[in-house]
Specification:
Layout (H helix, E strand, L loop, with lengths): L1 E5 L17 H6 L2 E5 L1 H4 L9 E4 L2 E4 L6 H18 L3 E4 L10 E3 L7 E3 L3 H8 L3 E4 L15
Parallel strand pairs: 1-2, 1-5, 5-8
Antiparallel strand pairs: 3-4, 6-7
Length: about 150
Amino acid sequence: MKVLVSACLLGMPCRYDAKAKTHPAVIALGHDWVPFCPEVAGGLGTPRPPAEIVGGLVKTIEGQDVTREYLLGAEEALRLVATHQIELAILKARSPACGSGQVYDGSFSRRLRSGDGVCAAALKRAGVKVISEEEIDGHLDRPSESR
């Protein structure tokens, strides 16, 4: 099974701070990964200013509206889903692009609110199961030894 996965979880330094968030449990699953960073796919560089969802728009800490770039990244994710027949995505928790169920509240104070990131929401609307790296246990089976 092909799985769309946040590239930062696989060790790629594509986060806003130009760091990775390598997650050994994600890597250990051994699925056929399709690494993806919606922010980079949408045209944003690395590093870049932190961004949060503010009043339905994605804005950087400096107030720049980057909603268009986030929407472009979500469109690219949907293209990958169709191309690779992806039914599952493991995305970075709390991100304004990838957060599933919780995202930062737009105050840049690390407070959380209920909701989904732009890419996670688009994937869910398309019928893709979206989980975060924090939800792996109980959602996925490890591949069998015969693989």
